[in-house]
Each structure stands twice: as structure tokens, then as C-alpha cells.
From TrEMBL:
Pfam families: YajC. Residues 82-129 are annotated as: Disordered. One of its GO terms (cellular component) is plasma membrane. It is a single-pass membrane protein. It is found in: Cell membrane. Residues 84-104 have a biased composition (Acidic residues). GO terms for biological process: protein transport. This is Preprotein translocase subunit YajC. The lineage of its organism: Bacteria, Bacillati, Actinomycetota, Actinomycetes, Micrococcales. Belongs to the YajC family. It comes from Cellulomonas denverensis. The keyword Calcium does not apply. InterPro entries: Preprotein_translocase_YajC. Keywords: Cell membrane, Membrane, Protein transport, Translocation, Transmembrane, Transmembrane helix, Transport. The keyword Membrane applies.
Amino acid sequence: MDPLIIILVIGVAAMWFMSRRARKQQQAAASFRDNLQPGQEVMTGSGLFGTVVGVEGDVVTLESTPGTETRWLKAAIAKVVEPPVEDEDEDIEDPEDSETDEFDVTDRPLTDEGTTIEPFGDEDGKNKN
């Protein structure tokens, strides 16, 4: 058998498998977007996190902060985000119980007394903006 035919058959088979996998991914994304429901937390392709408030055709209304609603195309929704689960066993230290010293910016001067700060840059004054 001719090696050129074998190479062509392998190339066509590889292209067919790649397009099949891409088609499955597109179908999965389309079914995910068709099943969006109010109350789900999602992330858009641009990285905006929000809660689905409503779905009307190809438009999804997201609430990113309380009272702020924006409208997005379904195609812009990248994935459903699971809200983080808070671990109840974590010991969170109370700031009042902390033994670290408070640092106040006004406790010390920014420069030593009697010190002058010299300008830097164009010292001969030729390039004035």
C-alpha cells in the first residue's frame, strides 16, 4: 500500500476525531446554558461573577452586587460557580485578642529633621515638561 494513502487516512481520521470532540464540547456548553436557572452563581467569560436573576430567551440577567443587575447573552456565561463552603472548624483569631502592637503612621517622622530631599532627574533643566 502506498505510504501517501496511509498518511492521508491517518490525517483524515485525526481531523474527524478532533472535530467530533469539539462538537461534543459545543453541545455540552449549549445544554449547560439552556439549563441556567435563577439562583445559580455563574462566571462570565470576562470574569464577572454574578447570580442568575432571570433567563429570557438568549438573555441572562445577572446580579453582581445587591441591586446591580446586568444583562448578558447566554453565550457569555462560561461556567457555574459553586459558592465557597465555610469551614466551621477553623479558628478565626479575634483582632482584639491579638498580641501584635498597633502601628500608627504618625508615630515617627517620614524624614530625619534637618534633612532635605534633593530632586532627581534632569538636573540641567533642559527637558522641562
